[in-house]
Amino acid sequence: MEQTRLSEYVRLSEQVKLQHKKIENFNIVGTEAARIDKHKQDVRAEGAQSLEHFGRLFIPDFKRAESAPFHHVIGRDYLDNSIPRLCNVIPRGHCKTTKARAAILYKLYYNPIGRREFIAIVSETQEQSLDTIQYIADQIEDNTRLNHYFGDLKGRRPKKWTEKEFVTSLGDRLIGRGTTQKLRGRSQKGLRYTLFLMDDFESEFNTKTENRRDDVKKWFAGTVLPAMDECTEGGGRIWLQGTIVHYASVLQSVVDDSAKRIAEGEPLMWKVNFYRAELGEGRTLWEAVFPIAKLMEIKEVFKSLGQPWLYAQEYLNEARDPDSLKFKVDLLQDKKYKIVTRDGFNYVLMDKKAIPINTNIGVDLAYESGRQHDYQIIFPLSMDCDRNLYIGDYYREHSPLSEMPQKIVNVGKECNPRITNVEKVGAQGLIKDAVKAMNQQDRKSIRGATIGIRPPTGMTKEDKIEGGLCRYVNTGKVFYNSIKHSDLFDEMFHFPKSKHDDLLDGMWLALQKLNPPKSKPFDQRELQNLKTNKKKRRKISWITNQPM
Q1: Would you list the domain boundaries of the chain?
Q2: Which one of 37, 97, 212, 328 counts the least CB within 10 Å of its CB?
């Protein structure tokens, strides 16, 4: 009997232990599940802070390079629902498409419960837009981090999941289209387009002619804008982004309209973020990927291919039609040459030839020396017997006006000019007295500096520069060094819309009263044998008064 009770007790004890173990295991599982849920909530909250947080946590592409400050700006604007019309003008290769794709994923995963999206991805061709559709679909299907922290957005039986469009398990729909393709009449269960991503929808091909540009603009205004949702709270949004491929493109029109409205104090229709790869003074927009050395290398590659304007288009968002350029910069003669002085005469040494030249200096002065003002310019320019022009080593700095008389003299002693032309304006009068106070030798090196050149009356500066300089550049008669004279190249390329045109002013001044010499080019070796025609001064004995 006692043995039976003991056995029963043992059996019950084992059952109790087993039950306790199950309870303990249940509690442990429950605690672990709660901890995991809390962890997921924390990670999702971290990712919700900004597009950069979301991308760094969930999108592998974000980790390829350190983001630049402008990435944070456009990321903030993507997520700001109070901006209905956003225009991002960003240089080539600066990650604009990656950021936009991440912003769409952010919207799909963080949208409030009950809000559905109907998103159209529009690129130049439908095939290009389908790359973005496929990218987003792949992230939803295969990104383990997104699936772990947010759940499966595709679902087991998606309503539609093709290469051209798909619908998520929450009812969000994405489709891909090409520029000028039909968009009107499409809706997702009565929902009109909530977002248009217009990513590189303009190209050199669909903006090549005036008719094509008009077709794109009419399609954009008559098809895209009316298709946006205006009924739900907040309405639809549109993101334009790309590089400016033509000065009469949609992107350029938006940029110009915004600049005009800002100047006139009118309400803005678009939030515009306009960026260039170069920021000036050796700084760049994205130092981690495009330092200034790399950009200069890219620039030289475009020049070597005879397409220098493409660098300005792709990386500076300065679209210029080669046929509309005032200066045909591809006709500039990029040569290695040296300018020397022998016995009071100037020569260009190039291709084993000594080319006699006459040299003038043009001086364009600025009152102020701050970086926001014009440059002080001292521009040596030479001409040979065939009226070819040779650019000398010019001076271009933000220097105080008081220092300029001596700097002009220094350049004059190096260049041996026939005439120094200073524009006859207020600044020329300020240095006139300083030049007169110099010794005779210094004044002799800059003849004409106190006289001044008055600009032509009844003519704009643009007409003056175009009429005076283009005929030389556009006939291949200007020789320069592309490394030393890159600032002059840039002013010519962007003329008449360049930020500065001081070098062109200086070049025009130097050209005035510059005449060709009569002497022809000859072999450089003969230059060493040339003897001066000057008679040697006889020495007279002070004792006998006879020649020594």
Answers
A1: 65-275, 283-324, 329-527
A2: 37
